[in-house]
Amino acid sequence: MSPRSARLARLSRSVTFSACHRLHSKSLSDEENLKLFGKCNNPNGHGHNYKGGELISIRAQGIDPVSGMVMNLTDLKEYMQEAIMEPLDHKNLDKDVPYFSEVVSTTENVAVFIWDSLQKLLPQGILYKVEVHETEQNVVVYKGEETIVK
User: Which one of 21, 108, 134, 136 is the catalytic residue?
Assistant: First the structure.
């Protein structure tokens, strides 16, 4: 394969952000919320240091033959700052982030929020996955809209 041939590569970058939230659904009673979410339904909330081993992964049709990169890491860092750090870091997700006023602030929904925010900034079609570690044991991977066959 010649150096000019397209090679698919994925680039990943991680960040860590701290935020608090309360798992609580407006569709459920207080008793149902407590039963479903347990201690995570604490009325005063609780916090996490969210991080990702590969928080954001992007892919391109090929490694640029001139720069040798899938994407400039400086650009990716700036996009992540705008899409993740500014809206989420050191915030109360339920009170400071309008998206979560109507959406339960589970890690699954945090991953969707990050995906949607990055999609608005990154070149179309290169975002591959968002991986969010709520704890060392709890990890969510989101790869955009995928069809679920029932």
Answer: 134
